[in-house]
Amino acid sequence: MTITEKILAAHCGFDEVFPGQFIEANVDLILANDITGPLAIEEFEKADAKKVFDPSKIVLVPDHFTPCKDIKSAEMVKVLRNFSKKHRTRFYDVGRVGIEHALLPEEGLILAGSLIIGADSHSCTYGAVGAFSTGVGSTDVAFAFITGKIWLKVPPSIKFIYTGRCSRFTGGKDIILYTIGKIGVDGARYKAMEFEGEAIENLSMDDRFTICNMAIEAGAKNGIIAPDTITEEFLLSVSRGKGIFYKSDRDAKYENIIEIDVSSIGPQVAAPHLPSNSRDVREFSDVRIDQVVIGSCTNGRISDLRKAAMIAKGKSVHSDVRVIIIPATQKIYQQALKEGLIHIFMDAGCVISPPTCGPCLGGHMGVLAKGEVAIATTNRNFIGRMGHPESFVYLSNPEVAMASAIKGRISHPEEVLK
Amino acid sequence: MKIRGKAWKFGDHINTDDIIAARYLNTTDISELSLHCMETISPGFSKKIAKGDIIVAGENFGCGSSREHAPIAIKGCGISLVIAKSFARIFFRNAINIGLPIVETNFVGRIFQDDIVEVDLDKGTIVNITRNQTGDFIKYPEFLQMIIKSGGLMQWAKEKYIK
Q1: What is the predicted ipTM?
Q2: How far apart are CA A218 and CA A293, in angstroms?
Q3: Which of A70, A352, A365, B57 has the fewest CB atoms lying closer than 10 Å?
């Protein structure tokens, strides 16, 4: 069996499961946010359910429109707050909240071998520690609140083997953008993306989170990386346990095996309006930009901020550009302060936002006007994603985003840092 | 169950931001969500359609976010069925869970804007009445039929778990 199949089998009481099989699996953790949570709570209450199956396994994270951008979003967060008080679930309010997919691993809530569902499509992020984690809808979450279960179809797996070493200014984001560019936004639809190989083994946890985070942009059900010593070190630093380390059998069946040599990949940029429009950054050097966003569940972690700060140090943001930096959690923000990264950003002319998904989905904290162009370390560049339906979003890694901020047009980091 | 309506044709990779933009997600009110259905790529869509009309799309319909607001907005504005060559997986499960009928078939290529289409969900057949053409599709597996027959996931939960 593959690692994905092993985790699913362990959670539905079967010795073995097969691609295409429908199972009802037990969940270890359920996540909902300020957009999807209120709908789930409505469904929970409409069903006349009286109590949740296990409050310690439910996490409500109001991160999308917080600090609340308007009255309606404040009402939605209030629904979460009240529900969490009534049912004693986990809840992170402003001051403690962070972007969910950075926050939960940091809080030690994600263990290897566990099964996690989140009413947020980027819940696939947690596969980076060797968990099965997938995005679901609000009704799924309401059902799981009551039963502790989720219906799933066991996905077939595709194995991605990354050989070689990443070149300077190339990392997890470039690997995943390149991969999505190769297979398309539905190239792994309904499937498990299993990432392995020398290049993955050499990546930090942060880069691994970035890769699994964007599995959904290829349509995948989950992205997963078998846990190793880097995973173990991370898990033991945030939690008392590490969970169960699974790995795929040698004779595990894959629908496809794709090999990619990362040493030939340069920094990637995905052009509007699909994440699969990825090409080498140098092909975009004439694209002028109005805004840069560095943050999100994809690239708002401490190593992302370090990479951006390395480019920004002693430089100034181009006069036509505004740069919004969003540390993904309070801890990351504090660490960035401690390391002097925030000073570097502010000296360069960037603004620092509290942790929020905000601009990534055109919610608040940096919405684009008609005709404006942004380069962002986020995950989607769909039409109107960051604001006006006639605005444009390019996706990149943090170094490219910051180099572009300084140059005023999409730039290779080497243009700034020789 | 038979569903008949006029087709509104869309392309491939219609994502959840196309179906309902995030700026409208600060509410769970169905009528408000419905008002903005497909607005980004088809302004005024919710006013143009008649109750019972059908959305017909290409590959990977509903890709992107997990927002259940997307199928809710579609159902809420009066669309009776979505036919696509394929669906993104979270949209697919959300539609099943909330009871929005969806059908996956390559027959999409033989349906054009404004055609009248009739689908028999029980038999797995599809008819383009305007062009007098017939096709079929693979019905859902038994497990999903069970949820659909209950009227959605929460109804099924009520029958099975909440007594």
Answers
A1: 0.94
A2: 22
A3: A70
CB contact under 8 A, B161 and A147: yes
Domain residues of chain A, as ranges? 3-244+251-260, 271-415
Return d(Cα A26, Cα A12) in angstroms, integer.
6
Nearest CB neighbour to A35, from listed B67, B97, B153: B67
Of A314, A315, A312, nearest in space to A325 by CA: A312
Interface membership of A148 toward B (CB under 8 Å)? no
Percent share of chain B, pLDDT over 90: 85
The CA distance from A213 to A125, in Å, is 4
Beta carbon pairs, A and B, within 8 Å:
133
CATH architecture assignment, domain A3-244+251-260: 2-Layer Sandwich (3.30)
Residue A385 at interface with chain B, using a CB cutoff of 8 Å: yes
Beta bridge partners of B64: none
* Structural domains in chain B, sorted by start: 2-160 (3.20.19.10)
Is the domain spanning A271-415 CATH 3.30.499.10? The answer is: yes
| AA letter at B154 | M
Instruction: Give me the residues of chain B with pLDDT under 70, please.
Output: 162-163
Which residues of chain B does A12 touch, with a Cβ-Cβ cutoff of 8 Å?
none
